[in-house]
Amino acid sequence: MRVENPMNILIIGGTRYIGRALVQKLLNRGDNISVFSRGNTKPDWWDRIRHISGDRKNLRDFRSKLRGKSFDVVIDPQAYQLEDV
Length: 85
Hints:
single chain, 85 residues, alpha/beta
């Protein structure tokens, strides 16, 4: 099912487990996906997303690389601690 108005979505992580399936589902819907990750794992859909390289644990780098970017939705399937959010 393709959406009429694709959303601009950021997935933090997204290359394994739930995130991997989520990105695939959103791509199938026709959404524009950006993935913030270290880039160590490159699923089949890798050439269909925008990759922002970084490590979520490095807060300064994380903020710097996302500064000025805008997303309709941000999804973090690996936010286990309050600090992660």
